[in-house]
Specification:
Length: 100
């Protein structure tokens, strides 16, 4: 018998949930904005560009003052969310390349 550590997201307070949702929304907007300009981008390049924009505070026109820490897992989670929602798609011949 092996005990697993408690999942952090199950113990998140309401304020933390709201913060996580805002972070996810900002990341999804940023991903979409980058891909609208580039039209297609390798997933690795997209992750690096999103993380770089977060660190520099270059998020969105109304959120220029905001900078926060994001990790590749955060960005990839948002990419999967946008793929499932149909906002992004993968190229058939190159599934590691994303298109808007």
């Amino acid at each position: 018998l092996r005990l697993l550590p408690q999942q952090r997201y199950l113990r998140v307070e309401r304020a933390d949930v709201s913060t996580l949702e805002r972070k996810r929304n900002v990341l999804c907007c940023l991903i979409t904005r980058i891909l609208k300009v580039e039209k297609q981008l390798h997933i690795d390049n997209l992750v690096f560009r999103v993380i770089d924009a977060c660190q520099k505070g270059e998020l969105c026109p109304g959120l220029q003052f905001l900078s926060f820490c994001c990790h590749s897992v955060d960005v990839l989670s948002c990419v999967l969310h946008l793929l499932n929602q149909g906002y992004l798609r993968r190229q058939e011949e190159s599934p590691h390349v994303l298109e808007y």
